[in-house]
Amino acid sequence: MKRFKYIGLIVLGVFIAQFSKAQFTLSGEFRPRTEMSHGYKNLAFEDQDASTITAQRTRLNAGFSNEFIKTGLVLQDVRRWGNQPQLVSNEDYAVSVHQAWAEVLFSPEFSLKAGRQELVYDDSRILGNVGWAHQARSHDVALFKYEEDIKLHFGIAHHENGDLTNSDYDGPDAYKDMQFVWFNNSWEKASLSLLLLNNGIPTLENGEQKTKFSQTIGGRVSGNIGGVKVASNLYYQTGEHISGRDISALNFLAEASMDAFTLGFEHLSGTDFGESDYKSFTPFYGTNHKFNGFMDYFFVGNHMGSVGLNDLYLKYKYSKDKIGFNAHLHYFAAAADIAADADKYLGTELDLSLSWAVNPMANISFGFSSMFAGDSMEILKVGDSSATHYWGYVMLSVTPSFIK
User: Fold this and answer.
1) Which domain of life is it from (predicted)?
2) How confident is the model at residue 170, as a pLDDT?
């Protein structure tokens, strides 16, 4: 019944918009993707069979705005083909709410946006929506925004259980408390962003819940120098790990792009085996699939608190008419010692992708990736480094605009 209530609200919004100076939009997304893998995220064994799965994201997006407010509602269904009975008899597979927010405009420059929403900043290294994943990421947060010559955002989130007699939180989210401040200033050929993220994770100590806070401080600068596009990230993490150890971790990225080519290097610090200090950088809530290879061996629900990563990469991008082609080559090495006498080289990955814009509302894309793993990868990932490791996909994306 809940989904019918949501649909009723959307229909009501359509009629209201007809009699006002407001803007109402209603769009959809249908995105099935079939993936075949042998050694995706972890090393495979030589005699291991390849797997093939199809998953789909379906969305209904509604938006309303006028001179006083803006609102957004995104209903979402994510499923693997075959995981729902043909005869559905319960609400276990109900549509979920991916976004549900309202933004109050106090003035043209200052506003408050509160509710379930995506947080996407800069290149999405620390805060991103993980759009490649069917479920994507959104937060329950209050966001204060000032945007004129500069942009200044302040976000705050606090989670607790429904029991009002205490302040404990043991829910599914990654944090109990989170605050961030983001600043951005752009010029004709350059842009500077600064970020301060305070992240609090609950943990039990002597039967009592405590919150361990860490701080991520840094930013991103980008510009154009003589026709060469350059960009760099620098983030430092400090604070207390949930284990009680002090954190001292670093993330650095530098890349240069000319024409269709991009050459770059990223360093995410790690902790040496047997070391007591915590030096592993955590990219937290970023779109990690975008960065260190599409086979997701690093920082996509894994590799946290490990030996870090050095990623040297070369990317090529080509597009003409309705066709797009991308080729990425990554050279991976551990940023810290893996084990006594272990080589830091982890592997080389090749990612290829091809897309075809059939029309303005439909796109078909293909991809194939292969990991050529080094011997030391076996220490981090269960499997056989000499086996063949590959992953591929085909995806259909249809995004109709029902009302605009």
Assistant:
1) Bacteria
2) 81
Reported pTM: 0.91
* CA neighbor of 43 nearest in space, from 226, 296, 256: 296
- Among residues 98, 97, 109, the alpha carbon closest in space to that of 144 is found at 109
Per-residue b/e over 246-259, b at no fewer than 16 CB within 10 Å? ebbbbbbbebebee
Which residues make beta-bridge pairs with 390?
38, 370
Which of these, 176, 61, 183, lies nearest to 121 by C-alpha position?
Answer: 183
Weakly modelled stretches of the chain, pLDDT under 70: 1-21, 90-93
Question: Residue 93: what pLDDT?
Answer: 62
Token pair for 89: 């008899």
Sheet strands (E) in 89-161: 96-105, 110-117, 139-147, 151-158
Give the amino acid at 168.
Answer: D
Q: How many CA atoms lie within 13 A of 224 on its CB side?
A: 7
Residue 328's φ and ψ, nearest 5 degrees, are: -125, 135
Selection from 136, 154, 41 nearest residue 97 by Cα: 136
264-280 b/e (C-beta count within 10 Å ≥ 16 → b): bebbbbbbbeeeeebbb
Position 166 scores a pLDDT of 82
Secondary structure (3-state) at 403: strand
Q: Measure Cα distances from 48 to 39, 369, 392 in Å.
A: 9, 18, 16
C-alpha to C-alpha distance for 33 and 30, rounded to whole angstroms: 10
Written as one string, the DSSP assignment of 286-332 is S-GGGTS-TT--SSSSS-TTSS-EEEEEEEEEEEETTEEEEEEEEEE
Pairing mode, strands 177-186 and 151-158 = antiparallel
What φ, ψ does residue 401 adopt, rounded to 5°? -105, 105
Instruction: Confirm if 312 and 300 have CB atoms less than 8 A apart.
Output: no
- 29-49 confidence digits (pLDDT tens): 999 999 999 999 999 998 899
Fold (CATH) for 25-62+73-403: Porin (2.40.160)
Structure tokens at 286: 């970023």
Indicate the DSSP class of residue 260.
T
Determine contact, residues 35/366, Cβ cutoff 8 Å: no
